[in-house]
Write the structure tokens for this entry.
Amino acid sequence: MVSPVRRCSRTACARPAVATLTYVYADSTAVLGPLATYAEPHCYDLCAEHSERLTAPRGWEVVRLAIDSAAARPSGDDLEALADAVREAARTPPRP
């Protein structure tokens, strides 16, 4: 039987996932937000420890959306919130 709890995507980590990481390659942006409603093939679910320690490659921006670790289930607006964060990051002028 498959467990209904999604696990951290990091190798050898079996902790429950609390956040979803999405990369927007065109904008050199990593977006870390609440656990998405559904597991997506190009997103990475992370546990609390790995989401706190997340760093991005040099020259990339990390957008961190508020993560409520006490929430029992993700809301239906998670993917929309991630998309809004990516749009906002794309509007920000690049740093010199």
Summary: The chain has a mean pLDDT of 84. The chain has two helices and four strands.
